[in-house]
Amino acid sequence: MISPFAPHMAEELWHGLGNAASLAKARWPAFDAEVAKAAEVVVPVQINGKVRARLTVRAGASDDELREVALTDAVVRHHTAGKTIRKVVIAKGPLVSLVVQ
Fold it and tell me: In 43-101, where does DSSP find H-type helix?
């Protein structure tokens, strides 16, 4: 990756890794979607339009899982204590938005 910007340094590092052929003749790495996929995502939680918490959940979590994790979080429970939760909206992206009164 640094070869276009620092070719001499890249060549030295390439040989230091045990490669005999020149880096200029090496193939560019192939893209692998499985390696690039994130295992966890950070989901912001809004309460009445203000972001109050950020939760780390597994990628691909269902709407029910997101709702459960958001409602059991200590920060969210602190901001909703003594209030009625009118609506829980799970937006794609993902985002959890609570409307409380």
Answer: 63-72, 74-80
Q: Residue 44 pairs with which residues in a beta bridge? A: 54
The two three-digit tokens of residue 61, written as one number: 């979590």
Q: Along the 101 residues of the chain, how does pLDDT read in single tens digits?
A: 888 899 999 999 999 999 999 988 888 888 998 888 889 999 999 999 999 999 999 988 899 999 999 999 999 999 999 999 999 999 887 899 999 99
- Residue 3, in any domain of the structure: no
Supply the CATH number for residue 94's domain. 3.10.20.590
Contact 35, 49 (CB under 8 A): no
> What's the CA gap between 43 and 60, in Å, rounded?
12
Reported residue count of the chain is 101
Cα–Cα nearest to 3, from 19, 25, 18, 20: 25
The Cα–Cα gap between 24 and 101 comes to 64
Q: Which two tokens stand for residue 93?
A: 């992206």
